[in-house]
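Request from the bench team (R.T.):
"We need a structural guess for the complex before ordering more pyridoxal-5'-phosphate. Sequence and SMILES attached. Just send the tokens back."

Command: build protein-pyridoxal-5'-phosphate structure.
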Amino acid sequence: MSVLGGIGGVLRRFSCMRQKRQGKPPLSLWGVTDEGGVLAVGGMPCTRLARDYGTPLLVVDAAALLRRVQDVQAVLNEVLPGAMLTYSYKTNCIPGILRMLHNAGVGAEVISPYEYWLSESLGVDGGQVVYNGVDKSRESIAGAVARGTLVNIDSRDEIDVVLAEAREQRRTARVGLRLALNRSAQFGLDPEGGDLAHVVRNCLDAPDHADLMALHFNVTSNARHSGYHTRCLSRALDVMSWLAREHGVRIRLLDVGGGFGVETSKNMSGVEYGLYRLFGVQPGAAWMDPFQDFRLYLRDLADTLRAFCTQNGLPVPGVCIEPGRLLTSKAELLLTQVKAVKERPGAEPFAITDAGRLSQAFPCDFEWHEAFLASDLRRPPSRPYTVTGRVCTRSDWLYRGKLLPELASGDVLAVMDAGAYFSSYAMNFAFPRAAVVAVEDGTARVLRRREDFRHLVGMDDVALADVTWDGGER
Ligand SMILES: *Cc1c(COP(=O)(O)O)cnc(C)c1O
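Reply to R.T.: structure attached below.
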């Protein structure tokens, strides 16, 4: 252990030197600004947001979100004109955010009956929804068939349910096949196994009730380069060509999933993750790593698609993409307040905050995220901290070995790229979940109120005494 401890100490010192050398990235990467030394979102100082709405607090920059959507739409128009753009609901399933995306012309990609219900409740046209997922209820499939939603079949028996619904409703279901291109994952139909052929046969046997029109795959996450995605596309194209050749099926929509990365955050490599968990060694900063711009990424996919279709004499199908992170990651940050700082001899100081990995920032477990001292951007970096949450377990840390300025109670930290998978994974372990606000035209608007204590017992069948306070402050 002492040898290991020694190695850990050396690696941590190295990591600290590296963080010092790298410094901080420009705030413009996220579109946030420095207003007199305080980090501001859409011109609104984070200290004011923290004071007015409390912490932990998720803050959406509405203008940045809209700009991002428009940028992605412009790239699509240029590289793959006519392509369908849907947003992966599970990435950030806050109705106020989803509404902004839909108002900007983005469709919905849903993976559960709840998400399907939400898309319908938000008034999204059924034809602008793609229904994926491994556990679709009969009721939600009925809705999808009735509303003309593309249902991507995930397993052998699911097609029977879709066909039964279509027969009952005397409609033709829009059907896609989700391909399992990565055998170690549980999703989709294995192109080499019998299930795919079985589903195809069932569709072809019921031409009045199934329109087999799409292929779907989703194979990556936070990808920084198109390489793997493009190779998977080639395998999907082989399936498309097999369907045309063997069954005379013409695939009209190729849904290449999501997984497009952002330059400001990254998945830790296996080695980085191991060193981080074992020794608290900070991984390298995401913005220092090579990153392929989305335009070039999409162009690689488009070139592969067109070249394949030309070579094989097939018509070029329409394309659908289902990004989550690409659209929302950078447009949202998490504000958390330092509640206490503890010095321990021979150890990194602890900064206890109200946003740990377990309750509020789960992606920080396996992704690298930048952090700023939002309440004082001018305070110089000082030493590495272990930043923890407020749940009483050692595993509720937010950062380890993170070089930060000298911290004190009351300081406000901003965790960047909180717009993908933060609110989705948040839990109410001992504390209610955070509020979500959007800053727009210089004013803040609550998208989701902070949970109060009554909300936490809202589903319980128990008589409670009348208590005059319920944690719903602010
Ligand atoms: C999660 C998911 C996405 C979006 O993934 P991102 O990495 O956030 O882009 C798209 N499609 C499906 C089927 C998914 O499960």
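Two things stood out. The chain has a mean pLDDT of 96. The radius of gyration is 24 Å.
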